[in-house]
Amino acid sequence: MAEIRKIGICTGGGDCPGLNAVIRGAVKTAILKYRYEVIGIRDGFDGLIWPEKSRPLLLNDVSGILPRGGTILGTTNRGNPFAYRINHEGQESVRDFSGEVIKNAKALGLDALIVIGGDGTQKIGLDLAAKGLPVVGVPKTIDNDLSATDVTFGFDSAIHVATDAIDRIHTTAESHHRIMIVEVMGRDAGWIALHAGIAGGAHIILVPEIPFSIESVCSYISQRSIFGKKYTIISLAEGITVPEEIRQDCIRRYGSIPKGISVGNLIGEAIASESGKEVRVTVLGHTQRGGSPSPYDRILSTRFGVAAVDLIAQRGFLKMVALRGGRIEFVDIAEAIGKMKAVDPKGELVNTARSVGIHFGEE
Ligand code: F6P
Q1: How far apart are CA 125 and CA 127, in angstroms?
Q2: For labeling, which of 11, 161, 211, 288 is most exposed (least CB within 10 Å)?
């Protein structure tokens, strides 16, 4: 087995609280435990297309970054080296830089690369591995929707932000007798809406996995009103399917779905017009992705960073670290990607929510 002397590390796709803690865990383990040199690859894979952007990571470089949000390496979700979009004087073209990436990785002396990112980034890692760059993966998404791992770092921090927002919304909603919608992230899955909804005591949770209707939502709001609860808080995932009649109504009024309008606002308008009540919408957006990671995420990220370097030392290439049943395990990247973990509409957590009276808006 060829000796490993130098490894690279990169972060790709959207950022997430805990990335720096992974970088720190990996760099410390590489240097202190294995005496590897580490190169920090800048802005996703860009630092391998333009290697002058990349630089060695020493212990000093990772000092103090444990609680810091974002990624000290920078990231991009537009940097696929196999199909890199270039804009030259307004003209867009697509170029394959993968050959350069492999050549530059060799020139930098990289024996392996740690790829921290979601499905798209891991797929690029696999394609680079097929061209000769050994990779190991670290999964990342605040949405917590990867089936390969019980939890992804960043999720816990995101639900802290979302829960805090719902807590704050409670007092103002109650004072004004309003319906308040808190729109949270979750492009394909409703984990953040479900967890924050339960933790924050929302009355209605709307997730992509459970079809809902405005009539059902409004009838639940009226029932609450009859029992003296004049306000209602809705935890809503950005990835819900907007009911067809709302889409059609929007197209009738504006000609198309206005660009940039949030689903929370569309649903809010529909509830206001059906119920005749005052509705306010808060879109949390990237506040859930920014800022310091929670203690849980710092620990999980550290475990992932350490394990990724251990994986390299064991020559476990094409594998990814994962948390399963509380233990760190290694899984094949190819098996892991593309398999989404959705909220189970009949699962224990949804049933728990139902047991405490939370409504999911179904007919
Ligand atoms: O997948 C993670 C995520 O945070 C989603 O919840 C969200 O829809 C998306 O990324 C936002 O991406 P961007 O930062 O590119 O707008």
Answers
A1: 5
A2: 211
| Contacts for 130 with CB less than 8 Å, ≥ 6 apart | none
Q: CATH classification of 6-153+293-324 is 3.40.50.450, yes or no?
A: yes
Tokens linked to 197: 């909804």
Query: Which of the listed residues 187, 192, 259, 341 should we mutate to test ligand 1's pocket, taking the one with most ligand atoms within 8 A of CB?
Result: 187
Confidence band for 260, pLDDT divided at 50, 70 and 90: confident
What is the pLDDT, as a whole number, of residue 363? 81
143 assigned to active site: yes
Q: Which residue ranges have their beta carbon within 6 Å of ligand 1?
A: 14, 77, 141-143, 185-187, 238, 289
CA–CA distance, 312 with 308 (Å, rounded to integer): 6
Which protein residue has the closest C-alpha to ligand 1 atom 10? 14
The per-residue pLDDT for range 167-185, each reduced to its tens digit, is 999 999 999 999 999 999 9
110 Cα–ligand 1 center, Å = 30
Which sequence spans correspond to the domains of the chain? 6-153+293-324, 156-289+345-355
Q: Which of 143, 145, 156, 297 is catalytic?
A: 143
What is the CATH code for 156-289+345-355? 3.40.50.460
The chain-wide mean pLDDT, for the chain, equals 96
Share of the chain above pLDDT 90, in %: 93
Residues 6+ apart with CB under 8 A from 97: 49, 81, 82, 84
